[in-house]
Specification:
single chain, elongated, alpha/beta, about 15% strand
Length: about 160
């Protein structure tokens, strides 16, 4: 009496279902959908055709490019173990914090008088410059109320 139903109960399902065939069909459907699946293209990818009559040889020189930024260049001097600071375009080194901020204020006022309001202050520091000096310049600029402070990318090595 080792059956699947209790004693005295009538069988509700007199026919047993073979699930092996059902598993095979589901497995085949999974394989079909996996093989027919096509991946979606990247959404940010834009196909473009660049002009062939202009290019690398026709690019303007660095002097001809008009920059709408204030760039603080920081270089490490290993002989004196100090950081030299200069403003690009001014090409003279600024020694004290007051001199640095005076040059930055002057360039900011020039941009404001020309109607340019969305320019960044770029900090272009060599990798040898201590972070303490970079953060100090950032603090000076934040105290002055300059909203956009950015870091310049390192120069690419010339092959």
């Amino acid at each position: 009496m080792a059956g699947t139903q209790n004693i005295g109960e009538a069988s509700d399902n007199p026919v047993a279902i073979n699930v092996t065939a059902m598993v095979d069909v589901i497995f085949c459907l999974c394989l079909f959908f996996m093989c027919s699946f096509q991946f979606k293209q990247l959404e940010g990818k834009i196909e473009s055709w660049l002009p062939k009559d202009r290019g690398m040889n026709a690019t303007p020189t660095v002097d001809a490019i008009v920059r709408e930024e204030i760039r603080v260049v920081m270089k490490w001097n290993p002989d004196s173990s100090t950081t030299s600071r200069s403003i690009m375009g001014n090409n003279s080194q600024v020694g004290t914090d007051a001199e640095l901020m005076a040059v930055i204020r002057q360039q900011r006022d020039e941009y404001t008088s020309q109607g340019k309001t969305n320019w960044p202050l770029m900090i272009d520091a060599q990798s040898e410059v201590p972070w303490q000096d970079v953060v100090h310049v950032m603090d000076l600029c934040k105290n002055e109320g300059l909203p956009r402070i950015e870091f310049a990318a390192p120069e690419a090595p010339i092959n």
